[in-house]
Amino acid sequence: QVQLVESGGGLVQAGGSLRLSCAASGRPFSSYRMGWFRQAPGKEREFVAAITWSTGFQYYADPVKGRFTISRDMAKNTGNLQMNSLKPEDTAVYYCAAKRAASDPNYANWGQGTQVTVSS
To answer: ∠ CA(64), CA(25), CA(29), 5° rounding?
Structure first.
């Protein structure tokens, strides 16, 4: 089982930036993929971005392409989500998740979530 702990949420004005981090522990993480999801009030949880730990290959949802960047620090077993040019519609609880890249169809490990609020 992998444990995930997010940090870095907060309140920012539209156009500003935030950096979220997700620290992974509990198992060797080299075979995993780390993803970020978000859930706004009254909406379903949606995919934001993901990174395959071994290769660094990145995936992005269309609404965040060009504004968000996912990265990983392999030495610290920490993933990061740099969010620039934030918009009020980015307001949500952001969750870090992990799955074994080659074998798991769904994300089975989830963090507790961190609130991101973008004011207009």
So the answer is: 70
The DSSP element (H or E) to which 37 belongs, if any, is strand 32-39
* DSSP class of 54: T
Q: Kindly calculate the radius of gyration of the chain based on its CA atoms and give it in whole angstroms.
A: 13
Q: Is 36 helix (H, G, I), strand (E, B) or coil?
A: strand
Residue type for position 107: Y
| Amino acid at position 47, single letter | F
Which of 65, 66, 48 lies closest to 6, judged by CA? 48
Q: How far from each other are the two terminal CA atoms of the chain, in whole angstroms? A: 40
26 vs 32: CA distance, rounded Å: 12
pLDDT digits (tens, 9 = 90+) for 9-47: 999 999 999 999 999 998 888 999 999 999 999 999 999
